[in-house]
Design a protein that fits this description.
The chain is 40% helix and 25% strand. The longest helix is centred in the first third of the chain and has 21 residues. The radius of gyration is 23 Å and the shape is globular.
Length: 480
Amino acid sequence: MSLDQKKNLIGGAWVAGAGISENRSPANQKDLIGCYAQADTEQVALAVDAAKNALAGWANASPQVRADLLDAVGAKILEKRDEIGTILAREEGKTLAEALGETVRAAQIFRFFAAEAVRVAGDAIASLRADVDVEVTREPVGVVGLITPWNFPIAIPAWKIAPALAYGNTVVFKPADLTPGSAHRLAQIIHEVGVPKGVFNLTMGRGSVVGDAIVGHPEVDAVSFTGSVPVGRALAVKAAGGLKKVQLEMGGKNPMIVMNDADLEVAVSACLNGAFFSTGQRCTGSSRLIVEAWVYDEFVEKLISAANTLKVGDPLKSDTHMGPVASESQLLSNLSYIDLARSEGAEVIGGGRFDGEAEGFFQRPAIFADATNDMRCSREEIFGPCASVIRAGDFDEAVALANDTEFGLSSGICTTNLKSAREFKKRSQAGMVMINLPTAGVDYHVPFGGRKGSSYGSREQGRYAAEFYTSVKTSYVFAG
């Protein structure tokens, strides 16, 4: 193993870890992307201390200072997008086109919050009492711990880091241990453009060590987490002991309804994208396709035909539609769900593991035809290119099936009937609703989040990010 490790950033200095880990491509295990530092609890404590010491200076800095820094980060990401996108595709496995798109999205997020930094709004409200003025202002929460997943290794860090810094907080950031490369390159850029020491800190390593230490540290005021449901729930319990502000984005088992009146070309395209693009590794992906009976057989036939055209292979090649699964453990989990779906009585089409052009974790898209909503394969988040296709008798049954889940992140419907679309928007128990669009794919300037087991706390992205990254203060002044 090379000793030339990519280091953690603590208090403005690059610090070697207590250990190092190899970052290898899921498309080719011989492709060593780099060796990355593994922080321990002592380094997390140092990072938190650095963030605490830097807080007053950053919180009281001119909004223009924060805006200029974030804008510079966005510009630098765009300048380096080919380099970053290639790292991202190599380490996560999504296609280069998707990786470049994600990199550009990260830049857009930083530039959006650069503008938000100079327009943090408050309220002047008339008091009920004479000669009293009431003012409502927003202030930084404090030291914020950010814990991000492997499936969007630069976009999700961006939509947490950018608002945290824009609103005057200081940051201790732990990226996913599986994909540290993109996050480390982002940290380098933030450092290069001149972030004051201690304002932004990078602590890479295992969630059970680094993430746990961040959540448990008494000087961390708030924690934003994106990841699995079990980890999110455990994090919330631990954070509650310290009365920390918590924001959780977790799983999804998102439904896409296909009505009898749908344009099937539109429906198949939306379902193919939602279920299989990014190798199905999106919390907003559509893994339950609920299809009205009259078009069920035709839809399944068209979906199978479309899935068969997807080329699975090297994510760096321009003609690849779907890259590898992100890790061997995730692949084995996907394959176990395929076996489960078959044992539960679904007809499994595709889904098998196969050898790509190199030693990697490749899987074909899997369609579970004639599935029912009570099967485990239709209820549990698989997080891979697997989709249950469920038959519904009519609109009301389809909506009931869509809502019959512990999750509530994203949902969709394909229909040419305006009344059905309008009714579904009202009745869907999800935080985001798509009409004739894939359930995955969102804009960065509007709220992101869900209901039930998918999300906890205030929304991410857009102006709604202020709800988490700021604290409201109400001031009364007697002027008599």
